[in-house]
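Lecture 7 notes. Example A: sequence first, then its structure tokens.
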Amino acid sequence: MASSEPAGQARAVVIGGGIGGLTAALALHLRGWRVTVLEKARELKPVGAGISLAPNAQRALDVVGLGDDIRSLAAWEGDGGLLTPRGRWLSRTDPRLAAERFGGPLVLLHRATLIDKLAAGLPAGAVRTGCAARLADPGDATRPARIVTGDDELTAELVVGADGIRSGVRAALFPGHPGAVYSGFTTWRVLVPPLGRSFAQHESWGPGRLWGTHPFADGTVYAYAAARAPEGAVAPGGDERTELRRRFGTWHDPIPAIVDAAEPGRILRHDVHHVAEPLPAFHQGRVALLGDAAHAMAPMLGQGGNQAIEDAVVLAHHAPAGAPPDLAGYTRVRQPRTTAVARKAMSVSRLNLLTNRPAIAVRNTVIRAAGVLGPAFLLRGMDGIADWRPPQPPYAARTHATGTDTEEYRT
């Protein structure tokens, strides 16, 4: 989508073309900024098979006009819940209750689908792929920030560091910070064609391991797994399907069938790292950090990408066109929330991946007892997370499925 760039229009440079970076670019573009996205990869090809978007992220996407498009992809219907490796129910979930409690359904979709929708809203030429970037000077109130790309140099009134877990922008701003550290477990992600039969969407917990199976709207099955493992470990010979068979091949249906259907070369395995020590701030000079660059977290709440999307629209809210961005205000609002969510995600991961069998027995007994009180009781764990609302009413989509939202931002 082409647009004119008025003379003297303030420039924002986004380093990183992932979900958080593109959301920030689109939100800032809609605020009146001239936006440039610098992505070091040769194409906008996201790492990871799928992403789950909770109602908090969907409301943030309303701000940039994509909320309804995302809700139309909701596919989770019917039974679901938490199982043991043998297929015994620990608790059941009702997606209708979750939608009622938090204002919308959980939507699982291809990361590439979301990337394409975000990029399509940007002006032609705004995204530069194959363009590695380095922050040379964060700038201050009297001078712009400087970014070096190969032999070229850009200046900007605002720079957004959205360059992921190993963020070079974060290291430049806070060289004494330890950065992301290993969380103690590794993950696998896989997509397989429709199985041709129904199954209950589930997450299953075993000693030091878990597995999740969910469908996309097109019937494709998305599965993910996690297990405690030494950092940097890989399957012998790189055969991750055999490794999954070893770890999950005796678990309940349809897990073995999914492992068998997976293409060995398309199984993604990544160690999980997180920012354990919060940063001093999410900004310095004219530079703001967001997403994994600011607060990489364990995936157990499914909130990593969701929090990056929240960051993006809140940053745009604090960066009105024609005025200096209030980056201190952005830090003040976002840092407490994301720190709390990240800590909760790490606590949940420890609970999910227990290895001590007596502790597992106690955990499962507590979960079953909570389930007796009903699904609504179990949903309380997402209170204060999935019910978040953006600080601004949608300015790209004035109405959406849950009505126009004008409530103040809540931490």
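Example B, a different protein, same format:
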Amino acid sequence: MRSAHAMSPRPLRRVAAAACAAALAGVLLGAVPVEAPAASAQSSQGCNAATRIGAAPPALSMLQSELAWTITKGAGITVAVVDSGVLAINPHLVDAFAGGVNLVGDGQAPDGSTDVYGHGTAIAGQIAARKLDASGVEGLAPEAKILSVRVFASDDKQTVEAGFGPQIGKLAAGIRWAADAGAQIINVSMSTTDDVPEVADAVSYATSRGSLVIGSSGNRNNMLSFVQSDADVPRYPANYPGVLGVSATDLQGVVTDDSIHGSHVAIAAPGQSIITTSQLGGDCVYADAAPATSYSAGYVSAAAALVAAAHPDETPAEWAYRLTATAVRSDPDTRDDRAGWGVVQPYDAIVMQPGPGLRGPASPFPGSEAGAPEQPAADPVTVVHKPAPDEEAILFGTTAAVGALIAIGGAGALGVFVSRRRQAATAAAQPVRHGGGLYRDDAPRD
């Protein structure tokens, strides 16, 4: 099992079939504020069981999906979603669901296969949704398996008072359970501003078991929270050793101020206009108004699954290094508190050849020494390149990609760079159904 950063969810609102908006809520559990992801509430005017969205998720073209899929689609890898559960009967997820556990104790399915809140189902779809006719929804790792670790039911007052809302103890227990169940990747979409020993111990345990934990960096918008904090301070478990903390980019590939910035940010990924699976059984669009880090963490978890499938004999630290070292950034030698080491690029992470001279984070691979080469690549090229036929070609492609990064200057250039890469794959316009975005009230519209 492998360990990574945990995402920062907020207390959730009860999903009502007649509601068309989602809201973020915060819950103070004991002395520890835990943010739980806001789920969408849909109605007949929004998303429902019959909703099918023909457009592909915009993030897939930003994340080198077609190139990565020439090598692997994540077969053989299990990703644990520590969240509100996963609706296993959603048609996109039937073949992806690998069981799980319900730690909430509310009498729902013991294998975590129910989700009244919707957030866990959305994350699961980002990671491993299978294609259906008349639907463009597909996960970034569409042959990976999903393990549902249900740690909360909802955030409404009655549910919280009954003991079924977000709780730090259940979050820690969920991480441990996922590690013991053999998940190579653990996606945690919950976070706190407090350094809690119980969670730190759970992350350390998961790491020791071979799991990579992925988590969000937190979101600026604390609307309707009991516990509000928009400060750029570390979030946990994203800030623990061995966890990949993830911030969210917009559709131009730029990390905005909607994400919390800080030393806990290791990498970034798309977190806006997320087309994925709904807890009502169909498709839906989330976080349409602004990026949210819960969803960006979901895509990094999927990217990690692809890397793990391609390199099953490597360690979680080596998987994490592949993801961070090859991420798109304006300065190849530097991370920053907004995007970490840059925007994740799964194909480049898969084909990277570890060794001395690679620029960026310190390498855990034996015999590797990070550092700038004496002369950078002369000709800048785009990071998206053709699959290499052999090791030498792969190494050349990776070195050329580093040269491209040197030529890109500043955050604005980075946004243009990623934006241009996805223009060719822009989905045909069509009416879509919108669900409430995480951490905000997005009004559903046709």
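Note on Example B: DSSP finds eleven helices and twelve strands in the chain. The longest strand covers residues 243-249.
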